[in-house]
Recover the amino acids of this structure.
């Protein structure tokens, strides 16, 4: 009876089930990657675990050289983990259940909605079917276009392998690459730059936005939702504003962008403004960037992608709601409005909580890592935000591996925990670990505080 109550308590809420399921997948994945069949050399279990966490969270921080240290089987497992992380384990489970014509329980629908960040349970199965179709089509198109970009300097078989892997990695905002130095050798390849950037943007907008535009084009809905409008406009603003600031702060920096011509500077700035938002690919050695540029990139990583996407961060909608709340307050309005619609005060409150919790967590961990690993605070902050927002970019002194590769055991464990928390969501992580709050029966009188 006690054991049954304990089990029921563990699986009492969707956030808790998702958390435990991801932990189980991480354990199984790390065991498989630790096997000799997955690696070209003996590795320790901690590095196998770190790689698994990085793959399932679609982060891309690496402590092992992916193309050299893993066999084709190991690379396949990493790719599978990336896909599971990008779409969510429940999406795969539900898809296979539907394939074998099994019924989906209401509880499973709630868990699926939670994992996809889908509003409600109505129309969820139709939405899931379209999501799988979207993913297959987009990744196939990306792989076909990338094939012609990678064909230069590679044989046909290698180009096919590279195009499939990088298409999946880019769409899922994972940042894993089969090249020893990521995409540094393809900085001048316009096909690779544009295709990878496009896949990152589409994957970062979210499945709900893609579905919204699909229904609008088919004239099944009369207008694009406010959520999709915020996700699109905020993403475009952050891309171009971020690129502009990168160029400004890299002015005359011959160790960074300034050693290239103007066309390459603009392309690289745009690519890294896009990639910084949770993808983790880089065409320039970040160790040559100024601290000011790294700070701007840290801010972009902190914001991240949109809800229900393959990316992480506090989300574009969160920062937009906070920005609108500030603008409306300065204007003297006591409500937050967007596109002639009022935003619920609970959503504003939730956005502020997410921002505050995330900011405090990242700051504390960055300070601790800076002291523990004896690195500068700027680089420590960059690494921690990259992990928390599941980006994967790192300033590793020109090394192919991330800065985390040189961390102590405790440092690596903290970064792994940060990647996992960032993937699940800080608020969801806290809710999953806490007990269901009791409804308050006492309402206190209003207090007046001077602010």
């Amino acid at each position: 009876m006690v054991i049954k109550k304990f089990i029921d308590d563990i699986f009492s809420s969707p956030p808790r089930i998702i958390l435990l399921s991801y932990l189980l997948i991480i354990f199984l994945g790390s065991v498989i990657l630790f096997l000799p069949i997955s690696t070209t050399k003996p590795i320790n279990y901690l590095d196998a675990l770190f790689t698994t966490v990085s793959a399932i969270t679609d982060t891309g921080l690496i402590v092992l050289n992916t193309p050299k240290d893993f066999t084709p089987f190991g690379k396949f497992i990493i790719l599978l983990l990336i896909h599971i992380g990008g779409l969510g384990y429940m999406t795969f489970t539900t898809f296979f259940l539907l394939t074998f014509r099994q019924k989906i329980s209401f509880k499973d629908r709630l868990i699926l909605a939670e994992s996809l960040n889908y509003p409600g349970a109505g129309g969820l199965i139709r939405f899931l079917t379209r999501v799988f179709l979207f993913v297959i089509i987009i990744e196939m198109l990306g792989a076909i276009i990338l094939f012609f970009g990678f064909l230069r300097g590679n044989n046909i078989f290698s180009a096919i392998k590279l195009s499939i892997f990088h298409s999946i990695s880019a769409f899922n905002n994972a940042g894993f690459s089969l090249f020893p130095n990521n995409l540094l050798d393809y900085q001048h390849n316009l096909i690779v730059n544009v295709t990878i950037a496009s896949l990152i943007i589409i994957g970062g907008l979210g499945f709900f936005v893609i579905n919204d535009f699909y229904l609008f084009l088919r004239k099944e809905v009369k207008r694009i939702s406010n959520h999709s409008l915020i996700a699109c406009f905020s993403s475009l603003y952050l891309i171009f504003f971020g690129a502009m600031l990168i160029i400004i702060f890299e002015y005359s920096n011959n160790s960074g962008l300034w050693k290239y011509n103007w066309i390459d500077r603009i392309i690289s700035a745009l690519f890294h403004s896009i990639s910084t938002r949770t993808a983790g690919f880089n065409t320039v050695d970040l160790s040559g960037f100024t601290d000011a540029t790294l700070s701007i990139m840290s801010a972009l990583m902190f914001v991240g992608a949109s809800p229900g996407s393959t990316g992480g961060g506090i989300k574009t909608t969160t920062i937009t709601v906070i920005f609108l709340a500030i603008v409306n307050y300065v204007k003297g309005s006591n409500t937050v409005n967007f596109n002639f619609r009022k935003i619920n005060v609970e959503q504003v409150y939730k956005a502020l909580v997410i921002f505050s919790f995330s900011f405090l967590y990242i700051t504390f961990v960055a300070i601790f890592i800076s002291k523990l690993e004896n690195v500068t605070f700027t680089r420590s902050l960059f690494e921690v935000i990259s992990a928390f927002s599941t980006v994967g970019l790192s300033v590793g002194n020109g090394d192919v591996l991330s800065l985390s590769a040189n961390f102590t055991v405790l440092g690596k464990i903290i970064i792994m925990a940060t990647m996992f928390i960032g993937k699940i969501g800080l608020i969801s992580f806290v809710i999953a670990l806490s007990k269901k709050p009791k409804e308050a029966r006492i309402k206190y009188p209003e207090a007046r505080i001077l602010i």
